[in-house]
Amino acid sequence: MTSEATTNSAGWQGQERRIAKARSTAVTRPLLFISHRHADQAIADVLRKFVTDRSGGRIEVFQSSSADADGPRVGRELHRQLKEHLWAAGMVVLVYTSPDEDWSYCMWECGVATHPQGPETKVVVLQCCPRAPSVYGEAVRVNAQDPVDIQKFTNEFLTSPDFFPNYGQAVAPGFLRNGDEVRQAAKDLHDALTEILPSDAEEGEDWATVPFLRLQLTYAEVDAIRKLGNAEGSRSVQEAARVTDINDAAKHIFGLGRIEQLAPFSRLVEAWQQGRPDEPTKWVEELCEQIRVGGHWRLPRFGWQLMRSVDPTDRAKYSPVLSRVRSVPRQRCHQFDIYFSKFDTDEAGAVKIGFVHERQAGPD
Questions:
Q1: Is 37 helix (H, G, I), strand (E, B) or coil?
Q2: What pLDDT digit, counting tens, does each position of 20-48 carry?
Q3: Can you name the CATH fold of 12-196?
Q4: Would you say 26 and 84 are in contact if contact means Cβ atoms under 8 Å apart?
Q5: What whole-number distance in Å separates Cα of residue 154 and Cα of residue 188?
Q6: Type and span of the H or E element at 143
């Protein structure tokens, strides 16, 4: 065995001794660690409240995003605190919401909790979307949108004596499996999750037939913008809005090959202005005004301000139109879908309007 391996082994053995001591002194209060992205705090809040209320406070909950739960302490190194809680946790619940997000930090947390040289820790995936994380494809998963799965989880949590390793008793020893108390607890949890989760429609591939852009504003940003006047609110939209989705056709208009997730909308505007320095920017002002009005849940007015693509070979002109506003409670934000309607132009650059006259086929 190398000196490095000996050092690592000794380090883990020391950690095990400290964790075993911590667990033995706190065996009457097991620890449940909620691993989640901070964008999914609302879901973690529901889970924490459920565990705390239904266990009568007999289960300790670690949730890094909540001031009401045990979490990282000011003045201490974050990774060390997380490791200490992960090693001490009898269970980790991974809140999984979308395969398109970055889960590297949550995977790190689950990896630390289940290190082979550490104490036994269970990992349960709270699956909030149709697809499960590939790393935990065979792990215990709870479909957050399925009332049957939620009741199975509630049964195990409240009535199983081995739900938490080394605890040796049920969280609610007086409750019967599938009894009235358990059924009501499961219903309450399912109802609370349903309020903040997206619909359970099957995910599938889709594509936009025209240039498409999705922008995002947080609830707090929208609330602040609502208090501003028209001009100030529109300027605030341009400064605060972030890009969450953009297709290749829209990137082509702005002259970009790629754009980072949650990049500022102003970055798109700057790229376009660099490619079209002499073009008017009225389309920017109108789009921001559409978003400002949409944030009030009112129908915007469309002035059909036109813009040109950065690509000099593209003779078309485009008008951005806000087509959809969506509230996303689990991310505490509003999303704004924008389509760039395309208008053809003639040799002089004038917009061509009308229909192509084609001979219609008659009845057979």
A1: coil
A2: 544 444 446 899 999 999 889 999 999 99
A3: Rossmann fold (3.40.50)
A4: no
A5: 10
A6: strand 140-143
- pLDDT of residue 258 exceeding 80: yes
User: Structural domain boundaries of the chain?
Assistant: 12-196, 212-343
Name the most confidently modeled range: 78-92, 178-192, 205-219: 178-192
Taking a C-beta distance cutoff of 8 angstroms, is the pair 170, 155 a contact? no
Give yes or no for a contact between 93 and 32, defined as CB atoms under 8 angstroms apart.
Answer: yes
The Cβ of residue 76 has, within 10 Å, a number of other Cβ atoms equal to 10
Q: Looking at beta carbons, which pairs linking 115-118 to residues 24 or more positions away fall under 8 Å?
A: 115/12, 115/87, 117/9, 117/12, 117/13, 117/16, 118/12, 118/15, 118/16, 118/19, 118/87
Quote the CA–CA distance of 74 and 4 in Å, as a whole number. 32
Query: Span 3-9, mean pLDDT?
Result: 47
Helix (H, G, I), strand (E, B) or coil at 353: coil
* Cα(240)–Cα(267) distance, integer angstroms: 11
- 70: nearest Cα among 89, 96, 42, 97: 89
Select from 102, 85, 83, 103 the least CA-distant residue to 94: 103
Give first-to-last CA distance, the chain, whole Å: 87
**Residue 89 backbone phi and psi in degrees, to 5:** -75, 135
Percentage above 70 pLDDT, the chain: 81
Q: Are strands 31-35 and 60-62 parallel, antiparallel or unpaired?
A: parallel
What integer pLDDT is reported at residue 24 of this predicted model?
46
Q: For residue 183, what pLDDT band results from cuts at 50, 70 and 90? A: very high
Q: Are 97 and 31 in contact (CB under 8 A)?
A: no
Instruction: Name the pLDDT band for 245 (thresholds 50, 70, 90).
Output: very high
Could you tell me how far CA 101 lies from the centroid of its own chain? 7
The bridge status of strand 140-143 relative to strand 317-328 is unpaired
Q: What is the Cα–Cα distance from 265 to 341, expressed in whole angstroms?
A: 19
Q: Convert the pLDDT of each residue in 83-119 to its tens digit.
A: 888 888 889 999 998 887 888 888 988 888 887 776 7
